[in-house]
Prior knowledge:
By secondary structure, the protein is an alpha/beta fold.
Amino acid sequence: MSILTLLTDFGTQDTYVGVMKGVVFGICPTVTIVDLTHDVAPQDVVAGRFHLASAYRYFPSNTVHLVVIDPGVGSDRRSIAFTTAEGIFVGPDNGVLTGIHDGPITSAVELDRPQYWRTLSPSSTFHGRDIFASVAGHLCAGVAIEALGSAIDVSSLVCLPELLTVNSDGKQQGIVQSIDRFGNLITNLRLDLNSLESWKIHLPDHTLPIQKNYSESGVGQLVAIVGSHGFVEISVNCGNAHERLGIRVGERITMEIGGNCGDGAVTIVGSKSGVAVDGTVSGTIVDSCVGGGPRGKT
């Protein structure tokens, strides 16, 4: 039995997701499709990448993972697929797969074989239907990934610069990479659960110790914890940190040990990420949509 996960920014109001599933079932009627989420903010490749990275390891290693968050649909951005020891991944080469392709890749291709598309003349606004869903269906039906396109150099895959964490002078710099439906601000900074007592979150008018769970703070109080995904998050016990603080996806964060903020602190800088950072990264760094934007359906 084949399994396909589907992650998009299409929402559920329209028929886009259902149409993609119809294309897949038309090629592989026996596949089981799991909807990871379709509620990613429009064009928010950073948050979409977080959702995929948080989920794919819980599926069998032969699962096909299809992600369609594609602000550059219809442009010259590549459509790609690659395999790792933990799954098969299909989507646009726009950074939404950042980190997924950091591990050993056994095969990577550009999806440039039209015989595996739904049509030889794909829509310039709906590659999810005409290219990605069709290719995913063929993969679920057993077609080898090498048949779907030309081999590509793994180092050429696009990476999102804002997802890099920079460590220097006793500081770690990152971003808020996602906001869940509870309003929790999920950063891309990791912290050892055994060192919580030496860290604090430093916000305007607030200094928060990192705690083990939400209930260690009173109802309505800000709290910082390490979430089930392993990342530091800022929350309000029985409330909404996003609404309380007005912080959005892409806001830059600095986590500091020592300095002027006590034993340790995380400072919300309050500016958009995407600036150049020192250090090297495998892949091609490009600008991206952070936090979504009014670019229309992808």
